[in-house]
């Protein structure tokens, strides 16, 4: 097989180049500490060459943070609704209170406005967080639905190690 760009025969499947440039290491140890106690541990990691990083296969996007944002939004909007309902109940069941020495009584227009304002701020802030989380979640899920197809296309690609051109050979050029 030849590179369609420079006609070099120095070509490989991208998946092979990625795997060759990726190594995984693990290490464990067990010993006795200075005080005679048993100590141990383990570590590990994945190392990739620059080329392997550039040729990495398509990956799924984690949607955990998006889900957390939506949960926070539901809790916030629910709290705001409970706040408003409790305010309405307290207004309906409140007895008239005399103003004593200039203090604002419970159930006055000031308290009603302050409580409704606080509930509105909480509801709006929660709704914004939820909207951002939902939007990000939908975008991530749309990407994740395409990953299997993208991985299939990735496995069919080749790279020229001379000029760096990526290409997908047709069935006739594999001879």
Features:
single chain; alpha+beta; 4 helices; 5 strands
Can you tell me about this structure?
This protein is α+β, with helices and mostly antiparallel strands. 51% of the residues lie in helices and 17% in strands. It has 4 helices and 5 strands, in the order βαββαααββ. A 3-stranded antiparallel β-sheet has the order 1-4-5. Strand 4 and strand 5 (166-167) form a beta hairpin.
Question: How is this structure best summarized?
Answer:
With 175 residues, the chain is of the alpha+beta class. It has helices at residues 14-20, 50-54, 64-93, 109-156; strands at residues 11-13, 22-32, 38-48, 158-160, 166-167.
List the topology elements:
Layout: E1 11-13, H1 14-20, E2 22-32, E3 38-48, H2 50-54, H3 64-93, H4 109-156, E4 158-160, E5 166-167
Helix pairs in contact: 3-4
Q: How are helices and strands ordered from N to C? A: EHEEHHHEE
In what order do the strands lie side by side in the largest sheet?
A: 1-4-5
Low-confidence stretches: none
| Helix content, binned percent | 40-55%
**Helices and strands: which structural class?**
alpha+beta
Number of strands: 5
End-to-end C-alpha gap: 6 Å
Beta content comes to: 15-25%
Biggest β-sheet strands, sense, barrel: 3 strands, antiparallel
**Can you count the helices?**
4
Globular, elongated, flat, extended or rod-shaped: what is the shape?
flat
Average pLDDT number: 82
Rg, Cα atoms, Å: 31 Å
